[in-house]
Amino acid sequence: MAKKIKDPGIGLSSNKRAKRFINKDGSFNIKHINRRTSISRSYNYLISISWFKFFCWVFLGYVFINSVFAIIYVLVGISAITVPTGSIIGDFMKAFFFSAQTVTTVGYGAMAPKGVVFGVISSIEALIGLLSFSFITGLLYGRFSKPKSSIRFSDIMVLREHNNVNSIMFRLMSRSTNVMIRPKVEVTLALSQKTENDKYVNNFYNLKLERNEITYLPTTWTVVHPINESSPLSEFKKEELPQLHGEILILVTYYDESFAQEVHQVHSYMLHNLNIDKAFIPAFHYDEEGFTVLDHDKIGETKTL
């Protein structure tokens, strides 16, 4: 049996119902409870969420601020801004549009505050608007400048004979046209096994790869782990591997020219999703002019052996 390694940071305790450690999007599958939050942590949250969620939060914040000040203007008396409509909804909408002009410092000139009270309120709102848009500008810069890996993994992992040895394979490529410089792959096997005391524990093993580093990656890279005598999976038959409660944890690091620094990405495959006697088909070919054509949709396509 291959030598075990120390806990890579996931923990040794396990359960027969334990789910995967790493989700398909690369995030760790952990539910946080009783976690203390603060306003300072909102920055990390807002630069990490999707663009759709980000603009939804921006829109909701914009509507909330304008609604709050519109209510204040209506309560104080909208006659100091414009002629009342005689309807609460109508007055609210006029106050809302005035608030939108104030918070964005647009000022079309159709409405203007009269009196000291409205002048103070509108001045405070203008300050809040400046601070809010400065904050959003910083978030936009942070989202664009934050180093992000552009690695795409094959949806499946295959088990096939390679060089007369059964081997586990998965494939990766760059989502962008940038060439990945010196990509390195580290693969760890996490096996949840039952002990003599009817408890489940996690055992971790480093999987030796055919190659764990290349100079650059312009197309695809098929990562291969040969199941030889040094492999922790050598004691199992290939038909038994999908029955194991195991997960293959992957860490890929490479130098990205766009950010001028090293970036990384984590990924994982479950052993029960292993495709036996399948082989990846080539994802690139040469056209009539001799150029290499890379088809991103073929990264996970296989054929039966």
Please render the helix and strand layout as text:
Elements: H1 42-48, H2 51-76, H3 88-103, H4 116-145, E1 151-153, E2 158-162, E3 165-174, E4 180-194, E5 200-206, E6 216-217, E7 220-226, E8 246-256, E9 261-270, E10 275-276, E11 278-280, E12 284-286, E13 292-294, E14 302-304
Parallel strand pairs: 2-10
Antiparallel strand pairs: 1-3, 2-3, 3-7, 4-5, 4-6, 4-8, 8-9, 11-14, 12-13
What does this structure look like?
This protein is of the alpha+beta class and 305 residues long. Helix content is 26%, strand content 28%. It is built from four helices and 14 strands. It has helices spanning 42-48, 51-76, 88-103, 116-145; strands at residues 151-153, 158-162, 165-174, 180-194, 200-206, 216-217, 220-226, 246-256, 261-270, 275-276, 278-280, 284-286, 292-294, 302-304. The strands form four sheets. Strands 1, 2, 3, 7 and 10 form a five-stranded mixed β-sheet that branches. Strands 4, 5, 6, 8 and 9 form a five-stranded antiparallel β-sheet that branches. The protein has a two-stranded antiparallel sheet with strand order 11-14. Helix 1 packs across helix 4 (116-145) and helix 2 (51-76) packs across helix 3. The longest helix has 30 residues, at 116-145. It is elongated, with a radius of gyration of 29 Å.
